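queue> holo job accepted (fe (ii) ion)
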Amino acid sequence: MRILVISDIHSNSVALESIREKFDICFCLGDLVDYGPNPARCVQWVMENKAEVVRGNHDHGTAHSVAVVGDTGFRYLTSVTRPLQWAALDSSQRNFLARLPLTRRLVVDGVRYLLLHGTPRDPLDEYLRRDPAAWAEQVKDQEVDVVCVGHSHMQFELDAGGVRILNPGSVGLPRDSDPRAAYAIIDNGKIQLKRLRYDIEKAIAMNDALPIPDEAKAMYRTCLTNGRLRPPVAAESKSAILENSA
Ligand SMILES: [Fe+2]
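queue> job finished
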């Protein structure tokens, strides 16, 4: 079996539809919506491909009208894009998003998988990055072979006390300073982390057409072109900062 593992699409249909991998099953680890320009197309893609999908905090927030706390950074971007997300979905897409499970367990080729967005302790909201000891503590009683997670938008694979932890990274909004779409393939049990160049300018142009503030459009452009919320500090600026702070 060839498994496509995707997460954190965030309404970026251009990135999602650029993935041309052949697969037998798709695991989708949540955050289909918020931030980006085309939630309907992303939700529809996941529905049509019969993905094994779990709920992310942004799916939950959009489907259940959770108030956004905070007005800077990604919270600002969430607050100005969220009202557009629900409005863009038809009734079947809304029902699909609202009923996503928090976790999924399944066995493929004899391998026991647990799918979730955050962590076993808090599937919706807890961030846990590349920390084998912390992951080992969380998965020691789960009785699985592989735990597939998203949420941090950081692509990694690690061993946590004999359990593989796989984060495929973010398809639509990477935050690891690599703007290429991130995903993973599991081919007959072997994990491959993948990055893919796609038409970022097309996604930005779609976003620029939305009725959102120019500040939000600029923030989205920065995220997509740099793979992070802040542009990288240039070498010249770095030395200036060091001189000024000395
Ligand atoms: Fe996310």
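queue> The domain at 2-113+171-245 is CATH 3.60.21.10 (Purple Acid Phosphatase; chain A, domain 2).
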